Fold:
Amino acid sequence: MSARRLVLHYEFIKKTLKDTPMTIKKLTEEMTKSFDVNYTYVHKEIHELISINKIKMIKHNNEMMLLWTETQVKFEHELSTNVVELDKQYTEFITRPSKVRQMKLPLFVIEELKKQIVDLDKDMELMLGVTAVKSNGVWYKIKRR
Structure:
């Protein structure tokens, strides 16, 4: 599925759930009318959005309803108090995302890029900075001196 379609689905879910809470079944019916997607796909997308706290499930009249939240995403490493300080020496490299490397970005990152950059095409280059490292289940923030 193309990234453009995923962003359209994300925007549709956001707009629909901001207006009125609804069940996964009802949302699936709405998305099927607009995008011709199945229940499994919608269920997977909803649980992905729940995992990043974009959607909450609330119980209303014995039904589990989906509700869009406006909370900013907090990553585990941002909540950590462990800090590793590095010298000014660090490595820089440039890479091009490709299907071979299977680099995936979360939908909210793609959405922010779309807002900032008009034309996201095949010749996109990324510069990524490592801000934290997870070792043995513990996050460590990286701070440069």
About this structure: The chain has two domains: 3-68, 76-144. The CA atoms of residues 16 and 30 lie 9 Å apart.
